[in-house]
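subagent[fold] <- orchestrator: predict structure for attached chain, return tokens only, no commentary.
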Amino acid sequence: MAAFSQRILLKMCPVVGRLHFVNDTQGILCVSFIVAYWLYGVFCNLVIILLPRYYDGLVSGVIIGIYSALGVLTICSLFRASTLNPGRIPPNSESSQADETDWTYCQVCLRTRPPRAHHCRRCRQCVMKMDHHCPWINNCVGEANHWAFYQLLFYAFLLSAMSFIQCLLHWYFFPKCVHCDRTAFYIRHQLGLMYLETTLSFLMFAAMGCMLFGNHLNLILDRTTLDVLHNPYPQDMRVKRTSLEAYADLCGSRSKLTWFCPCGERRTGPMYMQADMV
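subagent[fold] -> orchestrator:
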């Protein structure tokens, strides 16, 4: 039995360890679009809005630093969510490690799997506590990388909110820049560039806000996206745990400050998956 699906590519990196890639054309195109939008949005906000107003004395360097930090945290979170093992079922998983009545057998990848594990048709493997397959990160969201996906939602929400506010300031508050190069392409065509950036930043802000709210509800109810799709209106809709307990379970047994670091790891999980985590 192969340890990994043929669609999974592994690459060892000296700094971050083993990287997990899904060889899926549609997913690669989606991730490429997200990276292109990130580059476009950061460029417009820094080069067209913030830096010219900084030289005009209208914007503090602290604002530029905060925006740049959010940009770096967002792209790092995207990288982590896209390249982390979502929690694949190890080939040596055994139902004897839990109540056998709760475990099932996958007829596709021929492995015994614990409750709430599902087989992903895109990744072609079973994933622990699978939430959903996200084409925008070209990866499944599961037991081992859900925290990184939530970080991505959080930082993308903050970045898009700040971008949209800056776009509004650009249109309605800031005067025309004085110390900008008016012969530069991006200044001569800033009207079209900024119309597009304003629209995209608002759409991203709204989408990330809705997803954050939905994921928060699922966390405190201890439900996944697949649970909601299979049973949208369960009989028991009571809150199962406090928000702090939910996020401790999501992010692991680390210091709460490290929950915000994309370079960290989730230091918890079932015993049968710890030895297999990347």
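orchestrator: received. Logging for downstream: The chain has a mean pLDDT of 86. The chain is about 50% helix and 10% strand.
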